[in-house]
Every structure is written in C-alpha cells, then in structure tokens.
Amino acid sequence: MWVPSYLRNQNYIMMKSNRNLRISGKAIIGSIPVFTGLIMCSCTHNSTEKKAPNILFIIVDDLRPELGCFGNSLIKTPNIDKLAEKSMIFTNAFCHIGISAPARASMMTGLRPDSTRVWHLEDKFRKNLPDVLTIPQYLHQFGYYTVGIGKIFHNHMPDSVSFDEPDLRPAKYRTEDMIQRDAESFYYDESLQKELDSVRNERLRKDPNAYAGGWAYGRSVECSDAPDSSFYDGAQTLLTIESMKRLKGRKEPFFLTLGLYRPHLPFSAPKKYWDMYNRDSIPLASNDYLPINSPVFAMNSNHELRGCYDLEFVKHPSVYRLPDDTARMLRHGYYASISYIDACIGLLIKEMDKMGLLKNTIIVITGDNGFKLGEHRAWCKHTNYIIDTRIPLIVYTPELENKGKHCSRLIEHVDLFPTFCQLAGIEIPKYLQGTSFVPLLKNPYAEWKSAAFTQFHRKPQETPDQNRYMAYSIITYQYRYTEWRYWDYEHKTAGSLVATELYDLISDPEENINISNLPENKNLVEGLSQRLNKGWRYALPPGN
After folding, report:
1. Which has the closest alpha carbon to 492: 201, 184, 174, 116?
2. How do strand 165-168 and strand 145-150 relate by DSSP bridges?
3. Is residue 437 within 8 Å of 415, Cβ to Cβ?
4. Dist CA 294 CA 512 (whole Å)
5. How do beta strands 479-488 and 469-475 pair?
6. pLDDT tens-digit profile of 233-247?
7. Domains plus CATH for the chain?
8. What digits encode the pLDDT tens for the residues 390-419?
9. For residue 307, how many C-alpha atoms fall within 13 Å in the half-sphere facing its CB?
10. What pLDDT, in 10s, does the model give residues 263-294?
C-alpha cells in the first residue's frame, strides 16, 4: 500500500472541523461497513520517493458518448479527441440510473442505488447514509488535498463536507442573489435574464415552494456573441486553472473534481460554437417512434423539456411528436454546447501542460448519464434505455501508455471509486460495490465482469396510468433485459412483476423492438431473469 512520504512517521492526521468525520475503526451503515479512520504506516521516510499522482476528475452533465474519439464525425470535439489519443477510451460504460442525483450519488460513494436509496432528484444520500465516505473524503484520509468546483453531486446537494475546498464558484456567481441559483438559470443575454425573472415571479406566485426557488430552466437555448468566460462553464474553467496554480505547489497531491454544466438544458453557448454547425444539415433521430411492444411507462414523459418555458406545450411521447424545426434547434444547441465544453477542457489541458502537471496528473472525463435527442420520440433522460444510461469514459494515465486504445468491457459508475484508489496506490475499501478497472488500463482485453446493472424509478405523475414502478435491468454484451415491478414507495420495496423488455443490442442497437414476449425467446428470458435477480455480485470478474 502506498502512503505519501509527508505522512510517514506520523501517528495522526489533522481533521478539519467542517468535514464532519469521525476517527474510528469503522462505522456500520445498514449492512455497509464504512471505514472512517486513516490506516497508519510507520514506514521509513524516503525523500526520493515520487509524489503520488494528482487526479483531475471531470464530470460533464448529460454528455452522450458521441464524441469524435467515440466515432461521431458530426459533433466537433478536437480537444477531447486529442487527449483521448493518449488515453484509454471505454466504449461500454454505464451509469446506474439515467438521472443526475442518483447517478452521481452512486458514482461518488461506490454504492448502487438500492444501497444509497437515492432513486430520484429529491432523494439525499447524506440523509440515508450520514457517515458514508465519498471518493474525495476517502482520498483525503490518505493525504490528498481535495477541491470541488461545479456540479459534482447535485445542484441542491453539494455535500460540502466532501472537500477541503468545497463548492468553489467564480466571483461573479458568489453574490447573495446568485449563490442559491442553479447554473442552469444563468444567461449571458440580459433580456433572457429579465425574461426569466418575470417567469420566476409567476412560478412563485403559483407555488411558493417551486423547485430551486423558482430559478429553474428559462428559455431552452441561448446563442450570444460573447467570450467563453462570459458563460458559466468558461468562468469555471478559468477558476479551475487558477486553483491548479495554487495546488501544484502544495506538498500533497490533489484530487480536483470539476463538474461542467453544459450540455445540460438550457443549451446556452457562445455564438461561435453554434456557427460550427449548419442547422439544416443536422439529422433528426432515425427512430422517432416509441419502441415496438414496449410498455408505455418505459418511456419518460418529456417533463424536463417542459421545464423550459418556451416548451411548456410538449406532451408525453406516446401522444406527441416535437416539430422538426424545434427538434433541429435543440439538437443544434446540444452540439454547440458540447463543442463549447470541448473548448473549455482544451484550455484547461493546455494550461496544465504549461504548468508541467500532465507529467503527474491522472485525468478522468465522464458523464453522469446519457441523453435523448428525439430518439423514441422523447427528449432528455429518465429511462432505462441504453441511450440514457451509456456514458463516455476517458482515462489518461501518465505512466500507462494507452495511446488511444479502446476498451469495450462493461464498466459501471461504482467502478470509479476503487479505480481511483488503485491508481493512487491506496487500499480499496472492502464495502465498495464496484471493481477497479486498472487491469483494463493495462490490458483492455482482460477477462472482466459479465454484466452491468441499471434501474429506474417511474413516478405516478410521469406515467399515463398514474401507477408507480421500478425497472431493473441487466446489460450483457448482447442483450438488455428489464423487469418492471410495482414500487412500494412507503416501504421502498419492489412488488409484483408488471412487464418485461428484451432488446438484442447486436441486431437492434437502438432498442426499437421489444422481443421479450416472443415464444422463441422464452428460455433466453428465463436465463436473463435468473441472472438479473441473482444480482451484480454474480457478474464480477473471475477472482472477484
């Protein structure tokens, strides 16, 4: 086990008062043991020992794995692609729930949704598991200095105790009237800001407890001719660069997490990124229809899109199709937002190179969930379909010469926590529910887990029949099989089976035809059902 040299021969660790951690052997959270004490080491000091690697963890909101390095030739991402040329590109990575708060809770705790009990936006992992350690909290105990910038957990659940320097914001957005607002409500154009002010007042008149204090989405798109830093993510990028200039001189290695907001709605980006695309040539979704033979509650209700006040007319995809011109406008905005984020990441990497940080900094770029752009006649996320759960994952490691290799092994969000531990050379907590994929960084063809697992909680207000359901899915290299069950919200338990879905990801990668009820698939469905109900432990790599 690696221990940083500046902690050797020490028998203590300074705990900051705002971190709310206990120094003890371990705490028991339900059935999950959570270790909260530093494992001490009295090794002999070696001044020549190399400093542990820094870690930059970039989480991009609502990013589909459709970048140049993932084979998309339409969306322009030259900077991410350049980094990917020196990285490992994981093409089969998945979140556990296609929605931000639960996806990020699992990512940052290494625990699956039924353990965090975070299934939707309003669920809070700190309320359910008050003593659980997040990735930065755990790395801090082994000498890492931790910094959080941007959207890492969820907008109203920042979990400040996770970081030495939590919730850093550009100065412009630290004022009293800005600090409680979601970044989704920030526009550069003053007329859009005034328009949103008016809409907010009306929202609060109708509902004094409106989400985010009424500061939710405004208009769905913004295209303003302004510098990158005039938009929130550009300002965040500059703050990250300034933070790194401070951090690189510290004796401790740093773990810095940057949460970029775009391409989350609204699609707000400088005009030059919109100008990179010809809207008339942007293709629409090829599968603009509900999956054949699928239960209607499997699809989301487009409620997130309706959160934009210029799209309040949108209805459930079973009864409504967005007009082509509106669909192209949104796809155009999504593409522009990705190119904008790509430029932000490019600037950050360039400045890191100038500072000499690329020589000893691991860089991980991923998304929190996927996103629909008209596929299945639906928009945004909130389903169990692959398009909502598949995420990009790019891992740059200075000491491992991956050089643009692709790995198609199945990776899950919970695998990130143990991977960070192994890359940092520290002990992996036994309670984690993922597996370090460091072996795949060395050999992308190594034997690996046989399945990934996802789920989704469908609320009554999102279903035409106003019932409540939970979907559980198993994803193999050929199939996604799903069981929909009634969900007992009071007791948080799954009930009787309601419907099933089965898609052949080789012959039907867009998941357009549910084949679970075909007589010839009876044995296949029974086998996948058994594997699903056995759970994730039975899908682990050999030896795990």
Report:
1. 116
2. parallel
3. yes
4. 9
5. antiparallel
6. 999 999 999 999 999
7. 5-450 (3.40.720.10)
8. 999 999 999 887 788 999 999 999 999 999
9. 19
10. 999 999 999 999 999 999 999 999 999 999 99
